[in-house]
Amino acid sequence: RKMYYIRVVFAFLAGLICGALNIVGILGLAIGIAVFILTYLLFRYGIKSISESVKDPKKFYMTGIFSYFLIWFVIWVVFFDILWMS
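Structure (tokenized):
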């Protein structure tokens, strides 16, 4: 449960960064993927309580993956449109 919420927060921050910095195209996608990989590394090696409680290694990258990319993309598009399309 913690992994999901932490990943949602990181998705929001990544989308905000991409939108606020006027990042478009493949660079924005690269930032989104890089932040997702950062959350994987954080769960796997950084937060001991999460890494010790997870039995299946697939859970480190599968938990919240669809929510992450959906939230990241929506926030990116919304902030980009608000800031740069006026």
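The longest helix spans residues 26-46. The radius of gyration is 14 Å.
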